[in-house]
Amino acid sequence: RNKINEIINKILNCCKNEVTFEEILKNIFNEYKLTMNANQYVLIGSTIRSYLSYLYDNSKMMYEFRDNKMLWRIKFEK
Predict the structure, then answer these.
(1) Number of neighbouring beta carbons within 10 Å of residue 15
(2) Going residue by residue through the chain (78 aa), what tens digit of pLDDT does each one get?
(3) Nearest Cα to 52, choosing from 2, 7, 3, 6?
């Protein structure tokens, strides 16, 4: 549970400004000093997409499409 919360916080910190999924993934790889390869991209990429889906479903994140890119950012409360 602690590791899940740690990863959620890393994603949220990464998304203070609008970023693409690729930028989020790069940030996570850098944070954990991982080396990108095709297998890691698919495995960790699908895991990060699950986290993004969870955060979106719980109103912590939002996204928009701009210039044919999907941009993620934290959802600020009004």
Answers:
(1) 23
(2) 999 999 999 999 999 999 999 999 999 999 999 999 999 999 999 999 999 999 999 999 999 999 999 999 999 755
(3) 7
Amino acid at 29: F
Find where tokens 């941009």 sit: 71
Question: Would you state the structure tokens that stand for residue 5, as one six-digit string?
Answer: 């919360």
Please write down the long-range contacts of 21-26, taking CB distance under 8 Å and 24 or more positions apart: 21/45, 21/48, 21/49, 21/52, 21/70, 21/72, 24/48, 24/52, 24/72
Distance CA 66, CA 10 (A): 24
